[in-house]
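Quick one, probably user error.
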């Protein structure tokens, strides 16, 4: 039931087709927009990080260890290990007393090409904190210290922190906990699978926290979203879609590996979850821009930033225009 989302042309020949699903929900409790199957099941991957951070804030681990808003924001992010990211991560370790060898994520080089090149030039080794999920791991380890939970098993599904994450996600998504699929993410954490409409519902609660009845979770969500907007650079990095979208204070957004992307619109009281089935991330800005255009979003600067990240024109290595990216989907409006 998938539909084409973006077609790539080189000259007049169609070279690639990126198909998938989109679901948009509103605060009336139902599906408002769809492309393909709005109930297609997808792993959240790193789109789940705002929910994984809720117990950290709910139980005050960020306050106990004196984390700044920027430092707390990187516990929600998929950073590129740029120098300012590393500085924040090392500060978190100093404040919490955590050590790098406590992280279960594997040592690696940064996702930022420029950061990796600089490290290679200086013959610096791989580090666990260069992993793009290390902020999330440090956040949960800080929670473990604050709550006197075991730290050695913090990534296991039956750990109290992980159990609370699952329960919180199910609550916000209005989706039964026992129906959420469980796998293991690249960083070693449990990863959750659910239908796109449930995922979009969870993001709607991030954008519209007044919909959350539990006051502790609601307060944590307000803090988390404020930090994401205030320190968008910590949620992803330079010239990344999440950081670019979060510059718009009306938007809360986060993507994950293998093509899943989610965002909520505060004023419009809408949220979208999408899945590119071939797992590509390059098309995200084009898809988000097209969604915003089709619903009549009133901030053209945000849309322009999306097209800057993923131009419609395809240029070769000599900067010559050789093709075109074309969003081709039409949102189906549900009455």
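Nope, works fine. Designed sequence:
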């Amino acid at each position: 039931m998938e539909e084409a989302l973006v077609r790539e042309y080189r000259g007049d020949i169609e070279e690639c087709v990126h198909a998938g699903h989109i679901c948009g929900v509103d605060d009336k409790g139902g599906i408002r927009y769809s492309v393909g199957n709005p109930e297609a099941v997808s792993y959240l991957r790193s789109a789940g990080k705002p929910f994984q951070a809720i117990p950290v804030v709910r139980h005050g681990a960020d306050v106990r260890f004196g984390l700044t808003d920027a430092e707390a924001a990187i516990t929600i992010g998929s950073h590129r290990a740029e120098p300012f990211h590393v500085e924040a991560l090392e500060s978190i370790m100093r404040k919490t007393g955590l050590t790098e060898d406590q992280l279960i994520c594997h040592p690696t080089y940064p996702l930022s090409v420029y950061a990796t090149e600089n490290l290679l030039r200086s013959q610096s080794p791989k580090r666990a904190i260069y992993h793009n999920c290390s902020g999330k791991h440090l956040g949960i380890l800080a929670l473990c210290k604050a709550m006197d939970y075991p730290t050695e098993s913090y990534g296991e599904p039956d750990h109290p922190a992980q159990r609370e994450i699952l329960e919180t996600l199910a609550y916000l998504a209005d989706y039964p906990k026992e129906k959420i699929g469980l796998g293991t993410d690249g960083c070693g954490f449990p990863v959750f699978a659910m239908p796109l409409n449930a995922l979009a519902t969870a993001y709607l609660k991030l954008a519209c926290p007044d919909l959350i009845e539990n006051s502790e979770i609601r307060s944590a969500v307000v803090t988390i979203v404020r930090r994401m907007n205030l320190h968008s650079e910590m949620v992803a990095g330079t010239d990344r879609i999440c950081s670019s979208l979060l510059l718009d204070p009306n938007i809360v957004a986060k993507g994950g590996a293998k093509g899943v992307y989610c965002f909520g619109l505060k004023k419009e009281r809408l949220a979208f979850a999408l899945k590119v089935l071939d797992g590509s991330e390059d098309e995200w800005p084009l898809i988000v821009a097209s969604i915003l255009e089709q619903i009549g979003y009133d901030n053209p600067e945000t849309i322009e930033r999306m097209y800057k990240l993923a131009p419609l024109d395809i240029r070769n290595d000599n900067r010559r225009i050789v093709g075109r990216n074309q969003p081709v989907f039409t949102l189906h409006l549900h009455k």
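The CA atoms of residues 56 and 140 lie 6 Å apart.
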